[in-house]
Amino acid sequence: MSDSEEDTPERQLKLVVLGDGASGKTSLCTRYTQEQFSKPYGQTVGLDFYLKRICLQGNINVALQVWDIGGQTLGGSMLENYIFGAHAVLLVYDITNFSSFENLEDWFKVVSKVCGSGPMPYMALIGNKRDLEHMRTVKEDKQQKFAQEHGMTSYFVSAKTGESVSFCFQKIASDILQVRMSKPEVEQHQRVLKAEVINSNNSNSATPTQLHRPQQQSSLCNIM
Ligand SMILES: Nc1nc2c(ncn2[C@@H]2O[C@H](COP(=O)(O)OP(=O)(O)O)[C@@H](O)[C@H]2O)c(=O)[nH]1
Ligand SMILES: [Mg+2]
């Protein structure tokens, strides 16, 4: 009998999502953990906390704790506590809003400050709202340059359509745990996303639902 999923101890990863208000952090988190996108913009107050269980190649079970931090807390006294102990930080900006890109430097500095002389967490740069390509104000190579200069991996996503969202989180978890993503796995994540696009446009369900994929579960609570 092969190893069952229960035999593999679950790894916990803390992912902290930072960036300017309205760049799409909450949308990204809800798209990933609840497979939904709701349009009305409500400013995140304090912190939202999401949990999603995934399974990586080699039957590695991972609980992703996703911390969605209110953009208004740059300089806030709690911010450094939230970042502390993060395995990864996702710096999110809006590709149609140049100042959200310019402010990445400040967000990066906050993380550096928390880490002091210790190691930095895995740093991912996320250009969100890719569905608004026609309104883009930050060129792709600007993002790539910033990522390179700051030792970050770089992703372009759309929380609205779901493009590359699942792939991005799966890749981050795989990189941290040094697990390779297989080609079929990459393709599977991209296929699921395409299906989500169709569903999200037609869906009028506003309530968070349980995920359908058996190895994945999510939940949300709010911490002020
Ligand atoms: N077109 C588009 N709009 C988005 C996307 N992500 C978020 N938004 C919208 O941008 C606004 C701010 O999103 P929100 O997730 O609340 O941003 P946060 O303040 O960073 O958490 C909302 O009106 C969202 O509907 C995206 O990928 N594409
Ligand atoms: Mg928010």
From TrEMBL:
Alphabetic keyword roster: Nucleotide-binding
UniProt superkingdom: Eukaryota
Name of the protein in question: Ras-related protein Rab-28
SUPFAM superfamilies referenced in this protein's UniProt entry, alphabetically: P-loop containing nucleoside triphosphate hydrolases (SSF52540)
Residue numbers spanned by region Disordered: 201-224
Family in the record: Belongs to the small GTPase superfamily. Rab family.
GO MF annotations, alphabetized: GTP binding; GTPase activity
InterPro entries: P-loop_NTPase, Small_GTP-bd, Small_GTPase
